[in-house]
Write a structure and sequence with these properties.
Layout: H1 12-24, H2 30-34, E1 35-38, E2 46-50, H3 54-68, E3 80-85, E4 91-96, H4 103-106, H5 110-126, H6 163-172
Antiparallel strand pairs: 1-2, 2-4, 3-4
Length: about 170
């Protein structure tokens, strides 16, 4: 399974169209720039996310998308079409948009919602044997630092190979 690479299914022109739209959102404020819906001719509805570490996030999402494909017990994980950095320095992930009702619109009880969420988390935990041993943080072909509020500016200063390496770093600091 080539789970550590990110698909690049979009053409250069499609990526340019997404970046152009993204730049147009600059006047809408920061929140609107983090994610947005987008349509391209001949493509399903798309959802685009912007983040500094989006390529690593896309690798992780693609990894779990492949594991979930064809598995009826798996949660629905959006397909990643591409993750890229634009010439302007914008990092974007383009994925399938899954149309789903909000919790208040779907007509299920809070207990049922908790059961669905627990089932999804259980499925993800069941996938741990498939996660590469060399992975700590994002599942990526690149060594990506962990993002967490524990770290200054929420980003580790470097990638750690495993929890022991992280612990050694924390105890030295």
């Amino acid at each position: 399974m080539s789970s550590l690479s990110v698909p690049h299914e979009l053409t250069d022109l499609e990526c340019v169209a997404i970046v152009t739209h993204f730049k147009g959102l600059a006047n809408a404020g920061e929140e609107a720039m983090r994610s947005f819906d987008f349509s391209l001719p001949g493509r399903p509805p798309l959802f685009v996310k912007h983040s500094d570490d989006i390529v690593a996030k896309a690798s992780t999402q693609h990894f779990f998308y492949l594991l979930a494909s064809g598995n009826e017990s798996a949660p629905r994980i959006p397909k990643v079409f591409s993750a890229f950095s634009s010439e302007e320095g914008y990092d974007l992930m383009v994925m399938e948009k899954i149309a789903a009702p909000t919790l208040s619109d779907c007509g299920i009880s809070d207990d049922q919602a908790v059961e669905h969420a627990a089932s999804a988390v259980g499925w993800l935990l069941d996938q741990l044997p498939w996660v590469p041993d060399a992975s700590f943080g994002r599942i990526s072909s690149e060594r990506a630092p962990v993002w967490h509020q524990f770290f200054k500016e929420h980003r580790a200063p470097r990638a750690f190979a495993n929890p022991d390496e992280l612990a050694e770093y924390v105890f030295r600091v």
